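re the bet — no i am not wrong, look at it urself. input seq straight from the record:
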Amino acid sequence: MAYISQKDKKELAPGIKAVLKKYGMKGSIAVKNHMSLVVNLQSGPIHFDMDGYTSVNVYHIDKHYTGRAKDFLNELVVAMKGTKWFDKSDIMTDYFHTAYYIDINVGKWNKPYVLDITNAVDITEKSTKEVETLEQLVGDDMAKKLRDLGMIKEKDTGYKYSQDEMI
């Protein structure tokens, strides 16, 4: 059964605070129902691409976040787990056994996350790559299909294709 005490929270707090400080974030640490360690992010320079409040799915951070936000959240999860966290769950047999659950909230339902504009990062960050040929960008098969459909000119004009333009 998942269980975390106030004593455990106090032991994990220095590591969590170090990650918050490293990224210039402000947040609070709490224990919910003696089962979950919760970090509520109140403000900071990281843009999470949301409106005021969201609950982070700690199992899919790499899917839903990029850049500095992804790095921060992954480091925060590691700090929240500490050295005593374990997960011996087996969903195939409907057996759940973990040290405690981890919750990260960006803002609260009654107090939204405040983006610190003066130090903000990742607001306009895009992952763009420049390549010489369309084949390098989308692969041989897709490039052929795009040309067959008349979506791409046959003759290369020296223009560099960009990932943002293909969307």
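see?? The first helix runs from residue 6 to 22. told u. also The longest strand covers residues 36-44. so pay up
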